[in-house]
Specification:
globular, 7 helices, mainly alpha, about 120 residues
């Protein structure tokens, strides 16, 4: 029995619910339909919120592949690029950092209200 259990990581994999709730929070925060956030649209109004969600998901422990799959992106490299872009904007432009922090707080509250007991 112990031999079988050793192949499992200490923490179970997270479900897609957290990713969906994060995207729903972004949809509400930026007032963009969820379908549009998940679309292939590449305008800044869509790309920034989508990339922020990918970055937060990565920092909360989701794998690049899982995040890419949920957002219907072809590969994990998209998530890596999104995370780098968000960090670069936060490091160089205070307004982006401020909005990122505001959204992070909003998303935490949004998700907490909708999580299962």
């Amino acid at each position: 029995m112990e031999t079988e259990l050793k192949s499992y990581p200490a923490l179970p994999p997270s479900g897609g619910r957290e990713l969906r709730l994060l995207a729903e929070a972004a949809s509400e925060f930026w007032d963009i339909p969820l379908e549009e956030l998940k679309s292939k649209t590449r305008t800044m109004e869509i790309v920034w919120p989508r990339n922020v969600c990918m970055s937060i998901a990565r920092s909360s422990g989701c794998t690049c592949n899982k995040v890419a799959k949920w957002w219907k992106k072809k590969e994990h490299g998209t998530v890596i690029n999104a995370t780098r872009m968000v960090q670069n904007l936060r490091d160089t432009r205070p307004a982006y950092d401020k909005q990122f922090r505001q959204f992070s707080e909003f998303a935490k509250s949004y998700i907490k209200k909708r999580k299962l007991p």
